[in-house]
Specification:
With about 625 residues, the protein is an alpha+beta fold.
Length: about 625
Amino acid sequence: MKKKETLSFQSEVKQLLHLMIHSLYSNKEIFLRELISNASDAVDKLKFQALSKPDLYENNSNFKIQISIDKEKKLITISDNGIGMTRKEVIENLGTIAKSGTKDFIKSLNLSSNNKTEINSHLIGQFGVGFYSSFIVADKVIVKTRAAGNPIDQGVFWKSKGEGNYEIANINKELRGTEIILHIREKCKEFLDIWRIKTIISKYSEHISLPIEVKTYNEKEKKYFWEQVNKAQALWLRNKSNISENEYKEFYKQLTYDQTDPIIWSHNHVEGKQEYISLLYIPSTIPWDIRNRDYKNGLKLYVQRVFIMEDAEQLLPKYLRFIRGLIDSNDLPLNISREILQKNSIIHNMKITLTKKVLNMLMSLTKQPKKYNDFWKKYGLIFKEGPAEDIKNKNLIIKLLRFTSTFNNDAEQNISLNEYVKRMIKGQKKIYFLTSDNYLSAKNSPHLEFFNKKGIEVLLLVDHIDEWMMSYINEFEGKTFQSISKQDDSLDEFIKNKDNIIEDKIKKEFQPFLKKIQDLLGNKIKKVKLTNKLIKTPAIVTTDSNEMSTQMAKLFAAAGQETPEIKYNFELNPNHILIKKILTIKDKDYFSEFIYLLLDEAILAEKGTLEDPNQFIHRINNFLSKI
């Protein structure tokens, strides 16, 4: 060995290794799944790079993964003839964690010398730390590797006991690729049984698209041979009728490193102007960073069975970034890049078809309400980006939206617009909704009083994206949408035959009163008027139909954008005891304080905040002191 040196692990790696060695795992066997997946990825990378550099094959394109067991020495060896690593890459890949998600994962754990936290095994693969899972079962790990195309004397030797340091040196390595030697812990001797290894391979890696061979002893011939354990055929290439539900689930787990079953999947072979295979899954485990629009979707792109790239985000719109799976195209060039993908007409047409396929998959899922509600709880907030992003499919997207409403009496979003329309009362022409900061403030809003009394259902929109989403939705099945916090003259016509419209006599009687308030408040409000839509509340504020709503202004402010000042209409309930009392007040200062108090109450109910809350409290205290 040459250039031998001892280096220290990065601090995050030390924490991770401590986790692997000292924590309790319910599923130790995943170490083999991780190492096989890494080996398969190494072969895929070599195939891709060899498209432009055929010499990387080194006259050997017979790809395989081989596993051997030495019970006496307690060794398991996993080797591949893939891309391999240089000395620099070994240090970067095995001594450092560059992926920020892994760092966040480690920080989220309270690791201490006595920590015995049990970790779900799927988190290992999810955060991209598969190699380090070796230390779950091994007290020492040796890696021998050589990058494809490099001279034989530029092989690399790496060794570690999973503590603070690792050894690295240059060696001669005749075959390209990577060999990992695990010194199995005494407590993990079960993995030295060949049948145990074969079972794990069949469970997790059955559909790896290259042979996985295990060194096996033939009792009759008294010699060893390499036995292929997996089918080595990509599952997506098989006929759907020959694939079991369990096989689809296991392939998903192998593809994503997620150990929970997917919610639903769709497998399709498209022929005609374009020919490609799609296998799309909706995960039941929501990724930790998926709400970030920079999150890369999980689609893998293959061209003529050759793996091309991870995270091919051009294949689906952003609001469907929760979809995982793969696309295998026969029409794309093998040398396609991300830049070419953005301008490629085949990709554009494929995106249109795949988007429709996902939406239809979701539509079929609505026939299983329990599963669809599970989907909506996980991904509804992301899916709500759809109406703005995907105009062509907006009608289908709207059918898939789910809401809570005054019909529910709880915060769960499980009501479709189709259900709402079926419950509309006679004469109702619009779909009514209310946006608010949270469910409780929406449920108790004074804007609902009249609607609750008349049994008119109102959608309660309480996610921060809802106001923005509704600005892109105009109608559903011929019914327009109406915010009940905005002016709506058509409601007067709707209630005309059933309610006492404010009589002209009352309007005339209140006219001087309204003018007095208007003069007092000046430009603080747009207009003072009477309303018949309140029952328990003396006053509310509303905006005109063509003006920015309160919730939209909050969205703009949260994004750091300037918003025009909202001029509210101040609407009074002429039948409320407080309004009748104010009507009789002669003292100018007392009248003024009372009006400002009512206005503050109405704005607080609408916005959830006031510009000067201390002044509001001072007014309340003044009134309480006079009781």
